[in-house]
Here is the input.
Amino acid sequence: MKLDFVIKNGHVVDPAQNIDQVMDIAIKDNHIVAFPDEWECDKVVDASGCYVFPGLIDFHAHVYGNGSNCAVHADYLLATGVTSAVDPGTAGSSNFNSFYAGTVLASKVRIKRYICMYGSGQIDYNIIEKFDRAEYRPQDIKKMVERYKDNILGVKIRMSKGVATGIDAMDATRELADGLGIGICVHTSNPVTPLKEVADRLKAGDIYCHCYHGWGDETILDENGKVKDFILDARKRGVLMDAANGRMNFSIDVCRKSLEQGFYPDIIASDWTGDKYNMSNTAKNLPFVMTKYLELGMPLKEVLRCVTETPAKVMNMEGKIGTLKPGAFADVAIFKMIDKKAIHKDCKNEVFETHKLFVPQMVFADGEPAFCQADFALMD
Here is the structure.
């Protein structure tokens, strides 16, 4: 059999298959394939000394770059090893058609989305997507969900001061989501209501977003630094904890204390926006964010599960993305892990140092090379 690409000698880590070993990967017709007994290939990549991961999934990245001043263009993610993404409500019902045509269909990165409860979504930093019952148009959201039912994962609501006025916004979101048979992604930092009121309204598959935030009057920790019972109960019900980082939505103190109690995130994400991608020491990119969890003692396989296997399941693409299993789309990210100090800052400007850094070497998206470092080449 003539293979399109072979990646040799890399250290493959694939939580979905419980693989953590040096092995080779074969690509043919845009998919991962099992090696046949006899094969040949003109394009062999030597990944010696590198990690080979499934293409990363950034579950919280604002990628409506051609329609929002808050967002970036989706394909910027490729150079960071990210091949799939979920946009967390940058677009609302009034601009959803534009988002789908100009971003989802036009991007190499695979994109699924939550639709914002506010009609125009997050179009600018100075225009808050304030939830107002008088302007709430559930029929328009329903129309978009029915039109893009294979792409929309749920509805997004920010239960923050200045956006929502009270628990009625959460109740409206719950009612709408239940009626449409979809989930909820709820922004929880700087909460406008007690977090228990928010968490108690979430169901299995819903997303509790920014779980390690430290912004506002309340976090997931009690006065003794313990994870609150209602948060533990929500997880038992199947609510997923999303550690979307962002600039104001991550506290190193809350994260450290939670991890020490074994309260790991289900999802790790960057919360990429136009004001911090690549240049920021808060959420530079997803691999940069991942190193914080390694520094705090979270095993590599569990960190990787949060950016591959788990988000793939939520995206209803289990076995297709987030894994290197034969039959999956050939989304592959090759990284070197180097010893290098990096400075991270959280929502209170607390400084945290890490000492390892993931450096992308080559990225395949849908079986084609989408990025390659200048000094990382094909074998002769």
Notes: Residues 199 and 234 are 6 Å apart (CA to CA).
